[in-house]
Specification:
Layout (H helix, E strand, L loop, with lengths): L1 H7 L15 H13 L3 E6 L3 H15 L5 E4 L12 H9 L2 E7 L6 H9 L3 E5 L13 E3 L15 H15 L5 H4 L2 H10 L6 H16 L3 H8 L8 H18 L3 H8 L3 H14 L1
Parallel strand pairs: 1-2, 1-3, 3-4, 4-5
Helix pairs in contact: 2-6, 3-6, 3-8, 3-12, 6-8, 8-9, 8-11, 10-13, 12-13
Length: 280
């Protein structure tokens, strides 16, 4: 009965304690130190939907508590997937001392070693399968690590980011809304990345869909307005929202997707959405 109830009536109480994830304490300690010492932080993410929603989520959350935040998305065709040397060199040139990779990084041992040699620390938020040898990062948040005791293993990249911002919100005594407001992005990533909608993902997708339908962020609202529909299901997110966000990285640059997802001015967002519609 309890399992059926949890399945059909998800609750935010079903979400696991973020501190159960291996290295969460190390990640939060390093980020709070960076903020205390006014270091420049870069959020580095992939150009697909999971990557761009992850970047938009973490970038906006951190920007609310620390001004020195930048983001970087590699060019799909010039740099390829994952952490790139070009991105690390850009970080070095712009005085970045901490890079947080989202939806990538778990396989980037050589490049993260290179960053370390340049004096740049790395925190990895990823959900892809780790290799036996892990990159020399300050902290690795990935429930698929063999020695990670986190109870749910199927989070997408944006889901891992959501756990990080939940922990940061607790560390800074911020209200729940400071991280729950990003559930529309988390649900979009869950849908687009085709991760199992079970357990924690089910609760995140359920409440994320409520945000999409009731109070979506400006960028998502402008995408939805191009489609004549009243209520959006998870299938609509897969086939309507996700392809449009993906199109930016495929046709031009993933930065366009993040710009749309982080824009608060409706008229500007509508312009970006029209551009993304043309890419699609």
């Amino acid at each position: 009965f309890d399992k059926a109830k949890q399945f059909f009536r998800p609750s935010l109480n079903d979400l696991h304690d973020p501190w159960l994830m291996k290295d969460m304490d190390k990640a939060v300690t390093r980020i709070t130190k960076a903020i205390d010492q006014n270091e420049s932080i870069m959020v580095f993410g992939d150009y697909d939907v999971d990557g761009t929603t992850s970047v938009a989520t973490l970038y906006q959350f951190l920007k609310n508590i620390h001004p020195a935040i930048d983001f970087y998305i590699p060019h799909r065709y010039k740099e390829g997937y994952g952490v790139s040397k070009t991105g690390i060199d850009h970080a070095k040139a712009t005085g970045i001392s901490l890079i947080i990779s989202v939806d990538c990084g778990i396989k980037s041992t050589e490049l993260i070693t290179y960053a370390k040699e340049l004096g740049i620390d790395f925190i990895i938020c990823d959900h892809h399968l780790p290799d036996p040898v892990l990159p020399p990062a300050i902290a690795i948040l990935n429930a698929k690590q063999i020695d990670c005791g986190y109870p749910y293993k199927e989070l997408c990249g944006c889901g891992v980011v959501f756990k990080l911002i939940t922990a940061l919100a607790q560390a800074y005594n911020l209200p729940d809304e400071s991280y729950l407001q990003y559930l529309d992005l988390v649900a979009t990533a869950i849908a687009a990345d085709i991760v199992p909608i079970t357990g924690e993902n089910r609760a995140l997708a359920y409440f994320g869909l409520q945000v999409i339908n009731q109070n979506p962020r400006t960028g998502i609202k402008t995408i939805l307005q191009q489609v004549k529909k009243d209520t959006f299901t998870i299938t609509d997110v897969v086939f309507i929202i996700a392809p449009r966000i993906n199109a930016a990285g495929r046709m031009k640059h993933g930065n366009h997707a993040v710009t749309l997802l982080t824009e608060t001015d409706f008229n500007l967002a509508a312009e970006y959405a029209t551009e993304i519609e043309q890419f699609n």
